[in-house]
Amino acid sequence: MVLKRIIPCLDVDAGRVVKGTNFVGLRDAGDPVELAERYDAEGADELVFLDITASHEARETIVELARRTADNVFIPFTIGGGIRSVEDAQAVLDAGADKVSINSSALERPELIEELADVFGSQCVVIAVDAKRRPETPDLPAAKGEGMAELKWDVYTHGGRNRMEDREAVAWAREAVERGAGEVLLTSMDRDGTTDGYDLALTRAVADAVDVPVIASGGAGELDHLVEAVAEGHADAVLCASIFHYGTHTVAEAKEQMDAAGIPVRLG
């Protein structure tokens, strides 16, 4: 039995955790390491730190944050943002991170995925996909399975600033996995920060297209949304930010809800 994971996401800007809606309107949510310690104590399975302006501003990766987190937190964590080479990834992993997440750099140079997987193993390489529905793709309330091949999502880079004209999200996720990515961090830009629930059609389309774990991200507003992402979206893990950062729910409450729905999670 494969346990489903609950993963708090900490978007980091200038050393602080921030959260916005549809990738804009950022507001402060606290110190990243303090929040990480809280989520560790609450029973989170993993953590993800995303330096959301690193790629856009061409800044170095947040190695110091990785080091501070490793000194204070005892669950696996992923660092993403500004990782453009094996050397960048090595620095973050040496500082204590368990995985690296890449997005813009992989779209600009897809061979980076293979380079990282060859050196560190696929289990260390997370491909982050920021996806937005194309105008002709309806916002389905749930993934029905029928006609899924007709649905399309665009891929964006640099924190949602730039659309990749020649990329479609499901096809790109499949290619990235074929190149060696061991996990897909899939964010719906349409749902991000809205608390309206995950894009189940997007999540299911990608999850059914790849043979590695898919982390659903973007839109969690209530605990039933997490259940839906796994049960209907076929996600292996759910990423959450606002509902945890601002005290709407705790990680423990989320796990209790999923357990009650018959979804296997790590309790206690």
What do you see in this structure?
It contains eleven helices and twelve strands. It has helices at 32-42, 54-57, 63-72, 86-94, 104-108, 111-120, 169-179, 200-207, 223-231, 242-245, 251-260; strands at residues 5-13, 16-21, 24-30, 47-51, 77-80, 99-102, 125-133, 153-157, 162-168, 183-188, 214-217, 237-240. It is 34% helix and 26% strand.
Observed structural traits:
single chain; 268 residues; alpha/beta; 34% helix; globular
Helices and strands, with pairings:
Blueprint: E1 5-13, E2 16-21, E3 24-30, H1 32-42, E4 47-51, H2 54-57, H3 63-72, E5 77-80, H4 86-94, E6 99-102, H5 104-108, H6 111-120, E7 125-133, E8 153-157, E9 162-168, H7 169-179, E10 183-188, H8 200-207, E11 214-217, H9 223-231, E12 237-240, H10 242-245, H11 251-260
Helix pairs in contact: 1-3, 3-4, 9-11
Briefly say what this structure is:
Helices cover 34% and strands 26% of the residues. It has helices at 32-42, 54-57, 63-72, 86-94, 104-108, 111-120, 169-179, 200-207, 223-231, 242-245, 251-260, and strands at residues 5-13, 16-21, 24-30, 47-51, 77-80, 99-102, 125-133, 153-157, 162-168, 183-188, 214-217, 237-240.
